[in-house]
């Protein structure tokens, strides 16, 4: 039973029986994702869930079910879950082999990066819409799928433990990154978002988790709701901004290419301000902090994984986690340099 592949699981889902071409989608560091194509068009998305990272799939699928009840709006495209032939939300072959399927949104596209201010504006709008809709949901129906996911002190503690047990070679290669991590942890100790309201957050709002209409480039919806949990809005804000205003990939090795594009930032803020009625004044003031926090959090997590020998993220080469860390830390520096600028733009556009 443990040698199931995408082909073997198809008969267990309630879809039309046709000859589908199965195409792996390589983006994503956690789950294995496949597109099911027919005559060149995608019909379904099939995923093998990473049960090491997500230890309670029932809970995770329940969160998604609850979110779908609220993500209903004429300006928000809803993705449908395809149930199994015995009417379950996912296929459980055994505890560590779990699969699920969604409909593909016809004519949609996702972008890893963008130079287009129209895309940045649409991204801001849809993230605002997502939060406005979920604001109506009671917080307590959602459960944490990864406790402490964006908790900085928890991530700092994991990093410290990894530093203690890492090999001398790894510690040497990561020397600069380790220094930067320690310095930034000291700086961030001054921030305390603890009084901000908790909301249901997506917690992974990078640009390529937003679907756009291929033709008119309207944002349709957010995908990948696996990390839907309670959190602060600044998490979703920071994750979106880090992947929009930086016009190169998250693991870019040439650090001189990393940008903080002001036009894209302002367009994103314009879009968000169209659907931002739910935000409190205090949350708005904290937004620039999110743009520094999120790349740093991802960077320190990648660094920790590098030091531990790549046990969490999927990597295609040995030092990929270190490259991701260096690139994310380089963007953290850019964010730090733009704190006053961001505050100015935000004050002008929101107040
Ligand atoms: C992981 O696999 P993917 O791309 O959905 C990670 C996110 C990071 C992202 C990119 C559960 O998400 O936190 O933003 O890589 N998800 C998990 O850095 O760890
Ligand atoms: Mg994700």
What does this molecule look like?
The chain folds into 2 domains: 6-104, Phosphorylase Kinase, domain 1; 117-350, Aminoglycoside phosphotransferase (APH), C-terminal lobe (Aminoglycoside 3'-phosphotransferase, Chain: A, domain 2). The chain has 12 helices and 11 strands. The protein starts with 5 loop residues before the first helix and ends with a helix. The mean pLDDT is 96. The strands form 3 sheets. Strands 1, 2, 3, 4, 5 and 6 form a 6-stranded antiparallel β-sheet that branches. It has a 3-stranded antiparallel β-sheet with strand order 7-9-10. Strands 8-11 form a two-stranded antiparallel ribbon. The chain is α+β, with helices and mostly antiparallel strands. It binds 2-acetamido-2-deoxy-1-O-phosphono-alpha-D-glucopyranose and magnesium ion. 2-acetamido-2-deoxy-1-O-phosphono-alpha-D-glucopyranose is lined by residues 28-30, 53, 204, 206, 224, 227, 250, 298.
Q: What is the CATH superfamily classification of the largest domain? A: Aminoglycoside phosphotransferase (APH), C-terminal lobe
CATH topology type of the largest domain:
Aminoglycoside 3'-phosphotransferase, Chain: A, domain 2
- Overall shape: globular
The small-molecule ligands in this entry are: 2-acetamido-2-deoxy-1-O-phosphono-alpha-D-glucopyranose, magnesium ion
Count of DSSP strands: 11
Which secondary-structure class do the elements indicate? alpha+beta
- The CATH architecture of the largest domain would be Alpha-Beta Complex
CATH class of the largest domain: Alpha Beta
Average pLDDT, all residues? 96
**Number of helices, counting only DSSP H or I runs of 4 residues or more:** 12
How would you characterize the largest beta sheet?
6 strands, antiparallel
